[in-house]
C-alpha cells in the first residue's frame, strides 16, 4: 500500500528558544554551580514539555484529518449513486487525506526525528489500507491498469485529475490549521517558503524514485498474490523502509500527487525538473514493475513460495 503513497521528509530544523523566565534569571550577576545546574534542568524540562505539546498537536491534526476524510467517504457512499462519479470523489478524498496528513508528517520529521516519523507513517499506511477501498490516491496505479488493459486512458486521466484536485485543494485546509500556531513548531509554516527535498542531480533523483517505486510495486503485487498473514503490515513496513532509505536523496515520495502537493514550486527545482523526478521517474518505475513482475524468475519465486506455504 505505501508504495502507492510515498511520504515526505523535510530537512528544515526547528529549535526551541530559551523560555523568557530562564533568560531573565541569566542577567545581572555571575551564577553559582548549583544555579547553573538548576537552570539547565529547568530549561530541559520546559523544552521537553514544549516538544510533548507540539507532538500532541501534530497527532491531533493527523487524527482530525483522517476522521474528516472517513466521514467524507461515508457521505460519498451514501449520496453518490453513479459508481464512476463516486470513484472519482473517493480518489479525491483519499488524495486530500494523504497529502493533508503528510504535510503534518513534515512537521513531525523536522522536529522529532526520522524514527518518530517512520512510526507515524507506518501506522497511517495501515489505516489507509483498511479504509480507502479501491481508491489509491496515486496516478501510476491507473497507468498500470491502462498498460494491463484493465482501464481506458480516459478513465485513468479522470482519476488522476481527481487526485490532483484533492491533493492541491487540501493545502488551504492545512494552512488554516497551521495559521492557528497553537504550538511553536507551526509558527511561520502556514505562509513560509519551502525548499526542494532533492539532494542529488535530477537524473539520479528520477532513478531513485523510479527504482524504489518499482521495487515497492513488485513487493505489493507479490504480497497480493501470496496473501500472507499480516500482509498489510508487511507491505507497510517495506514501503516505510524504502521511504526512509530514500529521503536523503529524493525525499522518498514514490507518488506524483503527493510530491506535487507538498513540493511543487519550492525553491531548488524547476517545473521540468520536478516533473522528471517525481512524475516521469515514479511512473516509469511503476510501469516497469508490471513487466518485472511477469518475468519467469519472479513468477517462479512467488508461486513456488505459495506452493510451499499451501
TrEMBL record:
GO cellular component terms listed in the entry, alphabetical order: cytoplasm; membrane
Alphabetized InterPro entries for the sequence: AQP11/12_channel (IPR051883), Aquaporin-like (IPR023271), Aquaporin_11/12 (IPR016697)
Major localisation: membrane
Keywords from the UniProt entry: Membrane, Repeat, Transmembrane, Transmembrane helix, Transport
Gene Ontology molecular functions: channel activity
Transmembrane parts of this sequence: 230-251, 271-293
Record SUPFAM superfamilies: Aquaporin-like
Localization (cell): Membrane
Membrane topology: Multi-pass membrane protein
Coiled coil: none
Annotated family: Belongs to the MIP/aquaporin (TC 1.A.8) family. AQP11/AQP12 subfamily.
Protein's recorded name: Aquaporin
Organism ancestry: Eukaryota, Metazoa, Ecdysozoa, Arthropoda, Hexapoda
Amino acid at each position: 500500500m505505501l508504495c502507492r503513497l510515498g511520504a515526505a521528509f523535510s530537512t528544515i530544523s526547528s529549535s526551541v528558544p530559551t523560555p523568557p523566565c530562564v533568560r531573565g534569571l541569566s542577567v545581572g550577576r555571575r551564577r553559582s554551580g548549583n544555579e547553573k545546574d538548576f537552570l539547565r534542568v529547568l530549561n530541559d524540562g520546559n523544552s521537553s514539555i514544549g516538544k510533548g505539546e507540539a507532538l500532541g498537536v501534530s497527532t491531533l491534526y493527523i487524527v482530525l484529518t483522517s476522521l474528516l476524510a472517513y466521514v467524507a467517504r461515508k457521505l460519498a457512499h451514501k449520496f453518490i449513486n453513479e459508481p464512476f462519479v463516486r470513484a472519482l470523489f473517493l480518489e479525491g478524498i483519499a488524495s486530500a487525506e494523504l497529502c493533508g496528513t503528510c504535510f503534518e508528517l513534515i512537521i513531525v520529521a523536522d522536529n522529532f526525528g526520522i524514527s518518530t516519523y517512520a512510526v507515524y507513517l507506518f501506522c497511517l499506511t495501515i489505516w489507509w489500507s483498511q479504509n480507502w477501498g479501491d481508491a489509491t490516491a496515486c496516478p501510476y496505479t491507473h497507468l498500470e491498469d491502462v498498460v494491463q488493459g484493465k482501464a481506458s486512458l480516459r478513465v485513468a486521466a479522470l482519476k488522476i485529475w481527481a487526485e490532483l484536485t484533492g491533493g492541491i485543494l487540501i493545502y488551504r485546509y492545512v494552512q488554516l490549521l497551521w495559521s492557528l500556531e497553537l504550538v511553536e513548531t507551526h509558527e511561520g509554516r502556514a505562509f513560509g517558503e519551502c525548499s526542494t527535498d532533492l539532494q542529488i542531480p535530477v537524473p539520479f533523483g528520477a532513478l531513485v524514485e523510479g527504482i524504489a517505486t518499482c521495487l515497492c510495486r513488485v513487493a505489493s503485487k507479490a504480497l497480493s498474490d501470496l496473501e500472507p498473514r499480516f500482509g498489510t503490515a508487511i507491505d507497510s513496513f517495506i514501503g516505510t523502509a524504502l521511504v526512509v532509505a530514500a529521503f536523503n536523496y529524493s525525499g522518498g515520495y514514490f507518488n506524483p500527487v503527493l510530491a506535487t502537493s507538498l513540493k511543487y514550486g519550492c525553491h531548488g527545482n524547476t517545473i521540468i525538473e520536478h516533473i522528471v523526478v517525481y512524475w516521469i521517474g515514479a511512473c516509469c518505475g511503476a510501469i516497469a514493475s508490471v513487466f518485472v513482475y511477469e518475468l519467469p524468475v519472479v513468477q517462479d519465486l512467488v508461486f513456488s513460495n505459495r506452493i510451499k506455504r499451501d
